Amino acid sequence: MPLAARMRPRCLNEYIGQRHILGEGRLLRRAIEADRFTSLIFYGPPGVGKTSLAELIARHTSSRFLNLSGV
């Protein structure tokens, strides 16, 4: 297993950054804890944590994780 995959956060508290939306009581954190999602699209450059966050959300909710690439 690649090092990057082994180092991915396993829980929300291990996810670094985005405290303004993922911190205790913040919008995205509340949505994850309430399991209230219809769909999400993450956009940004490689290596910023989009896949890690999506996998965390899928793990902590009843959501299904579907990884698509526009490349």
Features of this protein?
globular; mainly alpha; 0% strand; Rossmann fold; single chain; 71 residues; 38% helix
Describe what you observe in this structure.
- This protein is an all-alpha fold and about 70 residues long.
- The mean pLDDT is about 90.
- It has 4 helices and no strands.
- Helix content is about 40%, strand content about 0%.
- The protein has a single domain, classed as P-loop containing nucleotide triphosphate hydrolases (Rossmann fold), CATH 3.40.50.300.
- The longest helix has 11 residues, at about 50-60.
- The radius of gyration is 12 Å and the shape is globular.
- About 5% of the residues are buried.
Q: How many separate structural domains?
A: 1
Structural class: mainly alpha
N-C termini distance: 23 Å
The level 1 CATH classification is Alpha Beta
Q: What is the residue-mean pLDDT, rounded to a whole number?
A: 88
- How helical, in percent, are the residues? 25-40%
In short:
By secondary structure, the protein is an all-alpha fold.
Topology:
Layout: H1 3-6, H2 19-22, H3 27-34, H4 50-60
